[in-house]
Each structure stands twice: as C-alpha cells, then as structure tokens.
Amino acid sequence: MNGLNAFEIPILDWIQNTFACPFLDAVIPPLSSLVDGGIIWIAMAFVMLFFRKTRKAGITVGVALILGLLTVNLMMKPMVARIRPYDFNPGVSLLVDALHDYSFPSGHVIASFEASVALLLCRKRAIGIPAMIFAFAVAFSRMYLYVHYPTDVLASILLGTLYAVIAYFIVKYIFRRFNLDRKIGVPERRR
C-alpha cells in the first residue's frame, strides 16, 4: 500500500498549503475531537430515546454505530493495518496528538455518516441536514489534520452510509415485525 500512500500525500499537502490558516488551525481540532469515540453521536442517540417522536431514529443511529464499531474498530483497522499519513511523511507538523491505531478506515467519519444518514432516512431532516453538514466537516477535518488519507475518508463515507442503510432496514423490520411503532415508537399521525 506504500504506492497508494505516496500518491495521496501530495493531496494532503495540497489541502495543507491551500486551506491552512490560523482560524482553521484553531477551529478544526476541537471540531474533530467532538467525534472522538463517537461520543457526540452516542449522546445524541441516547437523548433521542427519551422522546417518543425521535425514539426510532435514536435506535437506528445506535444500531448503525454498533455495526461500525464491530466491523471497523475490531476487524478492519487491525486487518488492513494502514499507517497514518504523518507516519509516512514524518516532516509534517501536527495540530493534534499522534494517534496510536491504524488509519484505514476513519472511525470519526464512519460514525458521523452513520448517524447523519440514519437521521435522514428516518425523516428527521431538522437534525439530519445539519448532521450531514457536520459529517462532511469532520471528513475534511481528518485530512486537514493529516491523520487520514483521502481514500480512508472516501471509504469511510461509503461504509458509514452503508451501515446507516442496513441499520435503518433492521430497525424498520423489527418495529414492523413486533408492532413496536405503537408500543415504543413513533406516535400515530392524526388524520
């Protein structure tokens, strides 16, 4: 994978040379850290469980996050074992502490797209659209911070979207199969 790494380093360097400025240097590290461990998405899903109107969406986000955790952090990262861009190009100055796991795929980006796509699929546009904007900002931040390659980010967007779709259909099936919409889910619409 060294050839691919060498091909992508100039893209990361271009991002650094084009966009780096004191404002982004100050804003991007805390923005990206909001997704450390998926915490912002876990908290949002948890809060959504308390409201009948958002409960099904909260469950869908939770299922998507669990799918990503099981497949990405426990299987894909150790299996692919792709080194971080700053390990390949040690001359770069980092804005964040060096990470101690592998680069592919990006857990931050996957979690962000799992949650935001799940919200859109659950027709929670008032939350889903800002969440999608935030997810794309997180995707950019991971490259800006030089902690992920562009292909890490692209694959993570696709995987996060896939896990959200799978979670949506799993939750939809379970709710329909056990008639949970009436019991714990979304209130009936008035005609």
Helical residue percent band: over 70%
CATH class: Mainly Alpha
What's the gyration radius in Å?
Answer: 18 Å
Number of strands: 0
Intertermini distance: 58 Å
Bin the strand percentage.
Answer: under 5%
Biggest beta-sheet profile: none
Integer average pLDDT: 89
From the structure provided, what is the oligomeric state, counting identical versus distinct chains?
single chain
Task: Give the overall silhouette.
Answer: elongated
Taken in chain order, the helices and strands follow as HHHHHHHHH
The CATH architecture = Orthogonal Bundle
Number of helices: 9
Could you explain the architecture of this structure?
- Helix 6 (107-121) packs parallel to helix 8 (150-177).
- This protein has helices at residues 2-19, 22-33, 39-48, 55-80, 85-88, 107-121, 125-144, 150-177, 180-183.
- It is 72% helix and 0% strand.
- It has one domain (2-179): Vanadium-containing Chloroperoxidase, domain 2 (Orthogonal Bundle), CATH 1.10.606.20.
- It has 191 residues and is mainly α.
- The termini are far apart.
- The protein has nine helices and no strands.
Architecture blueprint of SSEs:
Layout: H1 2-19, H2 22-33, H3 39-48, H4 55-80, H5 85-88, H6 107-121, H7 125-144, H8 150-177, H9 180-183
Helix pairs in contact: 2-7, 3-4, 4-6, 4-8, 6-7, 6-8, 7-8
Summarize the structure.
This protein is mainly alpha-helical.
Q: Notable features of this structure?
A:
single chain, 191 residues, mainly alpha, Vanadium-containing Chloroperoxidase, domain 2, 72% helix
